[in-house]
Design brief:
235 residues; 5-stranded mixed β-sheet; alpha/beta; 10 strands; globular; 3-stranded parallel β-sheet
Length: 235
């Protein structure tokens, strides 16, 4: 529902600005973790959606652009990273599809065009396939959508991968896909699972997977790393 989406996004922007000002943040990292729209992979979602998949993609790309543009007025720099989920793959059946053949790749392309005159915004392209990598105050973070990962082993798995291929030791992982909040620490690597803006939909309801809609804001400092986390409820 587009109206509900815009209302929740408006709440998110208001609360985020409050926390940015409270902590006097000068650099904001925005991680787009995928499934920005329902797409067409689940019949129940396709029937419930107000718009066709292409229309969803256009709408959500513009909503994200508006949010980033507004938040950039509160900080000196916004770095935007993105990956793709499983809802917008071009072939519905995952057994017949290539994971990277995904319509969601259009979103960062659009953001680059849409925000090209905003010199506070950087659209960062990933050099790590479907993984997002960033360093915040000396702490290495890897993020992914999460549909291909086992959450509790994600930290160790991705640390092994990045250590071997890129000589980088990972401190934090962030993933989505499961729609609920969860945290797990292993071998000193903190893994954070974040909420979804949509909360529970028809498909999730049918498998009894319930969660409040929301987003996550983390504050990092040089001394503490992740100093605090705001799990922002949006309903």
């Amino acid at each position: 529902n587009t109206d509900i989406c815009r209302r929740r996004v408006s709440q998110l922007v208001t609360k985020t600005i409050q926390y940015l000002r409270q902590h006097e943040i000068d650099t904001l990292h925005v991680l787009l973790l995928g499934d920005a729209a329902h797409g067409a992979i689940h019949t129940s979602c396709r029937v419930a959606s107000e718009e066709e998949t292409c229309e969803q993609l256009m709408q959500v790309s513009e909503i994200i652009a508006e949010v980033i543009n507004r938040l950039s007025q509160e900080v000196c720099e916004v770095n935007v990273y993105s990956t793709y989920g499983n809802h917008l793959r071009t072939v519905q059946n995952k057994n017949d599809s290539s994971h990277s053949d995904n319509m969601e790749k259009i979103i960062p392309w659009w953001l680059e065009q849409r925000l090209q005159n905003n010199n506070r915004v950087n659209i960062v392209r990933s050099d790590y396939y479907e993984f997002i990598y960033l360093n915040v105050h000396g702490y290495n973070i890897v993020a992914a959508h999460g549909d291909l990962e086992k959450f509790k082993s994600f930290g160790v798995t991705v640390n092994t991968l990045f250590n071997k291929k890129y000589n980088k030791t990972i401190d934090y992982t962030i993933s989505a896909d499961k729609h609920h909040i969860e945290e797990f620490e292993q071998m000193g690597i903190e893994s954070i699972l974040v909420r979804s803006l949509c909360g529970t939909d028809a498909y999730a309801n049918n498998i009894r997977a319930y969660s409040a809609p929301g987003q996550t804001l983390m504050i990092f400092s040089p001394d503490e790393g992740r100093e605090c986390t705001y799990n922002i409820k949006l309903d």
